[in-house]
Structure formats: C-alpha cells, structure tokens
Amino acid sequence: MTTSHMLGRVPAPGLVLGGVLGLQCGAALSVRLYPAVGPAGVVALRLGFAAAILCGFWRPGLRPWRLWEPRTLWTIVGAGTLLAVHHLSYYEAVGRIPLGAATTIEFLGPFAITLTSSRRPGDLVWSLLAAAGVLLLGEGGLPLDLAGIGFAAVAASCWAGYILVSARLAAQVDDGRGLALAVAWGALLSLPYGVARAGDRLLDPRVLAPALAVAVLSSVLPYSFNLEALRRIPPRVFGILTSLEPAVGAVVGFAVLGQHLSMPQCAGLATVAAASIGATRSR
After folding, report:
1. How many domains does the chain have?
2. pTM of the predicted model as reported, rounded to 2 decimal places
C-alpha cells in the first residue's frame, strides 16, 4: 500500500489536526536550539532535513512531465518561497513571545481566508470578535514584544498564502513530488541566511539530532498530511480545522517550555478560536 493510499484512509480532519500537533511540538522543540544556532539556523536545518527526506522518499525526476510545466513550476516556487519566509518569521516570533500567543496571531492567516471567502454581512461579527481576541493577547501580566507580534503577523500572511498555493499544487500534482520540490526550494532560500547567522555551528552533532526531529515533526509529517487533506477539502474548511492550533500551541508551550499566559491572554486565545468556529457554523 502506497503512502498516498495510507493517508487516503485517514479522515481529512484527522490529518489536519495531526499536522497541527506536529507543528506545535516541533516549534517547542526548536526553541531549545535557539541558544546554539538561533531561529535562522533552526529554519535552515529544518527545511534542509525535510527537503532531503521528502526528495529521497518521493524521488521527483523528469517524469511526469506535468511536474516541470511552467505553470506547475511557478506554483512550486511560490509554495517554497512562502514556506521559507513563514518559517523565518514564525521562529523569530516564537523566540520573542510565548508559543501560544505567536500561534494565535499566525492563525489569523487561515481565519482571513475563511472571512474573505464569504460575502455575508454577519461575518463582520466574527471578524470583530477575532480582533478583540488579539487585543486581549496584549493584556495581562505578560506584555508581548512588538517585534514578536510583527513577525507573527508576517507569518500569518505567509501561511494564508501557502494554504491557497498549496491547494493549487495539490490539484496540479497528484502525489508528494511537488511538495518535495517546494520544500527543497524553500531550503535553498533559507540556507544562506542560516549559514550567515549560525556558521559551522549548524554541523554540531548536538544540534543535528534534535534538528532532524524538528524537521520530521514540523515539516515532513504536517506538510504531507496537509497536502493530502487539501485534496479532499476546500481551503476555507482547512482554515477552520486549524482553529485548535492556538489552544494546542498554548498547551504545548506550557507543558514543554513552561510558558504561562495570563487569564486575559488565555481569553484572547479562546476568543480567536471561537470566532473561527462561529464563522464556519454561520455558513
């Protein structure tokens, strides 16, 4: 049984939620690497390992020819570029603000897809509720770093773009070869910056082992799961199924990193998730 067939037997919501858990666990693990190589080094290693694993598994070659059609290549380049910028921004944010807060702001990207896909005036209510949730994140005893908020906002924009581009890639390529090339392109983009910031520390065995785990948890599994899910559900529904991501990020941040959020910040996290769920149920 092929990997595509195996993933095809898993319900799409299960794939999305499994990807969410992997992303957050990988992000928490990556924070422990920051003292050694910094966010840029983590991204370079994460995408580099993920590209090697995915390309080794899917073996994208000269066939099928549609993989190398200009339209498909542009989609691959777009997906890989968005991945690289998203990773750099998100990990810079996680290095400055708690994981749950960074994930909540990043989640506004998929939420925006949900709102823009509808023309219902009532969705303005959910938009305002989500905005209130973000404001609550800045309240309480744990003030958030403005640069961290800015990086998380950039990550949100890139994640929204990646969802749309990845849905197109899933329609153009019926297996994981397009994804493998997209991740490889993202790795090539992030490598020079990672080397400039971390240098030969990227080759430290004490860094390579956990970085490989981060790549599997945060890239290989989630992206494979998400691509398969996007073949079966529209981007709007995919965006909604990730509404648990802020809560998962907060729980993982507390359990793994000991990060605490104040009560108003927890309320803000829950408000953003509630707004996302409400926007879907209203339609």
Report:
1. 1
2. 0.81
